Amino acid sequence: HNVFKLTDYKEAYTKADIVVFLVAHTSFKSLPYDETKVILDFCGISKR
Predict the structure, then answer these.
(1) 16 near 37, Cβ under 8 Å?
(2) Are 41 and 21 in contact (CB under 8 A)?
(3) Between 46 and which of 1, 10, 35, 41 could a Cys-Cys bridge form, CB atoms 3.0 to 4.6 Å apart?
């Protein structure tokens, strides 16, 4: 896209301070839980 830079979800997760999960994709479930991030989970991914 010529206006927005698309970023891989793993890189975006690593660099983000706030993470919002709206869909429970399987690939998101494998991301490591990070207590330093503010995580807004609307689909149960971060249930541990």
Answers:
(1) yes
(2) yes
(3) 41
Instruction: Please write the tens of the pLDDT for every residue from 5-34.
Output: 899 999 999 999 999 999 999 999 999 999
Tokens at 38, concatenated: 């503010």
The residues that bridge with 1 in the sheet, in sequence order, are none
Q: Is the pTM of this model over 0.85?
A: no
Rounded distance between C-alpha atoms, residue 45 and residue 4, angstroms: 27
Are 34 and 47 within 8 A, CB to CB?
A: no
What are the residue ranges of helices labelled H in the chain? 9-15, 26-29
